[in-house]
Amino acid sequence: MAKKKENSFLMQGAILAATALITKIIGLAYRIPVTNIMGAEGNGYYGMVFQVYNLALMLTSYSLPMAVSKLVSARVATGQYKNAYRVYKGAMTFAIVAGGLVTAIVFFGAGFIAADIMKVDLSVYALRVLAPCILIVAFLGVFRGFFQGFGTMIPTAVSQTLEQIVNAIVSIVGAYMLMKVGQNMASGADKKSYGAAYAAAGATLGTVAGALMALLFLVALFGAYKKTLKRQMKRDTGHRKESGRHICKVLLFTIAPVILSATVYNISNLLDQAVFTNIMAIQGVPKKEYTELLGMFSGQYDTMTNIPLSVASALAASFMPSLVATIQTGSRKQIHNKIEVVSRFNMIIAIPCAAGFITLAKPILDLLYFTQDNTIPALLLQIGGISVVFFCLSTVTNAALQGMDHMSKPVKNAAISLVIHLIALYIMLVAFKWSIYSIVASKIIFAGAICILNARDLRTACGYVQEYRKTFVIPTISSIIMSIIALLVHLLFELFAGARIATVFALIAAVVVYFICLILLRGVTEEELITLPKGRTIINMLYKFHLLH
Fold first, then answer.
1. With bands split at pLDDT 50, 70 and 90, how would you rate the model's confidence at 1?
2. Residues with Cβ within 8 Å of residue 108, at least 6 apart in sequence
């Protein structure tokens, strides 16, 4: 029975991780034409707006899926279906109040935020377009957390895929159409800037439309599930009814630390850009120049590094309700095993991604963003590639501490790391004058500090000590071999097939070589492979090629 539950946890995690990869690939695919339409300046406005938007989500909805799934799963594990439904209603009330309030602040305060705080006044159009999405995503968070609390990641996975498809289509069309509107509004030197600003606003329309479509899907699904939920609640007669006040209190005590942790954890992006733009302005750098640098950072660097980070977030989302259920009914050994499994699968993905960014940054970006000079973004990706490993690991350790009700520890650790990060960023910008590279370098320090502090707290909280051989050593050795082969393949194919085709073959070779090395070095077991979607097919293929014995 325990094995079955473990397999279910890994399967749900694999489903959500696979969906995260698919949605990020779709996101990468549409960001290429959108980036080419907007140009570096438009990407600067777009990236700036999304830092404000992400902070708003931190305050309203980022914490909701995790908090709701944690509270719902704790009650479902003991058959308290009525109380689980009360958690849903309380969370929906929070979404309406918090989401509505922050939406109003961002919409009506867009001018002040853009001009006075971020020092990029033309980003106001995109910020106003994006503001209503804050409320929509708050509702989305409640529905996704509710279904995750019942142990199924499929509604979240399907809604995310649907959201991204609609986002992609509307973003491309919106950016193209509104760019022309902006260009027609101005003349002379301002023509290009207004076109870029309106193109950024058009691209944000996709985010709003995608989130709305996902919400409509989940509302319909929740309506269909209501009958089953009512039957489950009828069978729930032996538990104490939790009052609305108690539910709100528990919800707030769960949401508040997650909000604080997520806000401190993610506010670094907004602070980075605010510090960067203000120092660049003081140093006399033209606004257009530093806006374009931020556009490269958000348009290429962030887009690429967010792919493995989305997998980490997906694994953490599936991990949370499973960990909470284990805490309710299981042993310390089972808790340790769950943390180890999710950490290891995270590193199996994060480490080769980091290695790929370090070794093939320029060829990958030239393949995707073929209309731009990718020299600076490629160097950013090479410098910051290692931060992917730290950010992915810290995402999992944050979820582990929160799942064990040590809610304040991730907040404290993120706050300490943020102070260290800002000091490092200031020194790099002012003393070393490293410009945009300062942001990337200081992020490595930030994520690394969180990992160290979280590891210490996990050891104190439950005696967990991170396993190294299968989690770090084997994926690192496999990634080094992968990188060497990929570089050789790229050099060989570039001689007679051209750089872009060489990159495609190098990436295919990298994936195949890494997977073979991982199997041969026993980085994953047959028992773990069988829990993945199409796991039996994968195992049969490995036996056929004598990679498993």
1. very low
2. none
Residue 477 contacts by C-beta under 8 Å, 6 or more apart in sequence? 517, 521
DSSP structure class, residue 471: I
Residue 259 burial (C-beta neighbours within 10 Å; 0-12, 13-18, 19+): buried
Q: What is the pLDDT of residue 153?
A: 83
With a cut of 50, say whether residue 484 has pLDDT above it: yes
Tell me the CA distances in angstroms from 426 to 7, 92, 103, 390, 449, one per residue in order. 47, 40, 31, 21, 17
Burial code of 86-108, b = ≥16 C-beta within 10 A, e = fewer?
bbbebbbebbeebbeebbeebee
Structural contact between residues 43 and 35, judged by C-beta atoms closer than 8 angstroms: yes
**pLDDT(34) > 70:** yes
pLDDT given at position 8: 58
DSSP string across 228-264:
HHHHHHHH--SSPPPPHHHHHHHHHHHHHHHHHHHHH
Report whether pLDDT(154) > 60. Answer: yes
By the 8 A CB rule, do 216 and 162 touch? Answer: no
Write down how long the chain is.
Answer: 549
Read off the amino acid at residue 533: P
pLDDT of residue 108: 93
What is the mean predicted confidence (pLDDT) over 364-391? 91
Query: What is the token pair recorded at 98?
Result: 């918090």
With cut-offs at 50, 70 and 90, classify the pLDDT of residue 2: very low
Backbone angles phi, psi at 227, to 5 degrees: -60, -45
Is residue 473 predicted with pLDDT exceeding 90?
A: yes
DSSP 385-424: TTHHHHHHHHHHHHHHHHHTT-THHHHHHHHHHHHHHHHH
Q: What are the tokens at 530?
A: 């069988």
d(CA 294, CA 363): 21
Burial 398-436 (b: 16+ CB within 10 A, else e): bbbbbbbebbebbbbbbbebbebbbebbeebbeeeebbb
Q: Is the dihedral of CA 435, 436, 441, 444 positive or negative?
A: positive
